[in-house]
Amino acid sequence: MVRKISGGCLCGTVKFTVNDSFDNFYFCHCEQCRKVSGSSHASNLLTTIGNIEWLSGSNKIVRFDHKEGAFTKVFCSICGSGLPHESQSGECLVVPAGSLDAEPSLTPKAQIFCSEKAGWFTAGIEAPEHSGYESAG
Ligand SMILES: [Zn+2]
Ligand SMILES: [Zn+2]
Questions:
Q1: Nearest ligand, measured from the Cα of 58
Q2: What is the pLDDT of residues 118-128, one digit of tens each?
Q3: Gap from CA of 14 to ligand 1 centroid (Å)
C-alpha cells in the first residue's frame, strides 16, 4: 500500500489526496516563483499526472498560465493558497509542498534558478531561530 497524504488550501475549501510517491522535489528561486509566492522561492514536488484525487472545492480553483515560459500558478480563488496542477507540457503534476498536511518521504533534491536567488534568502536561513513569533526589536 502506498502511503497517502492529504492536502488542501488554507481556508479549507479545496481538499485532495496524493500518493506519497514523488519523483523530484526542488526549491525554485526564479523571479516568477518569487513574485507569485511573495517569498524567496517555491517548494515544488513532482509526480505523475494521475497521482491526485480531488475531494472538494475543485470549482474554486483558478489557473494562471504566464505568457512567457512554462510558468503556471494554480490557486484557491477564496484564500489564494497554491495548489497542485499539471505542468504546461502536460508531463507531470506539480505539487506545492506547503499545500500538503504531512511531510512527504522525499526531501529536496535541488535548488534551481539560483542565478535569480534573492540575496536575503541566504541571510534569512542563517538568522536566529525561535519556536514562535519573536519581536525583532
Ligand atoms: Zn482556500
Ligand atoms: Zn520558479
A1: 1
A2: 999 999 999 99
A3: 6
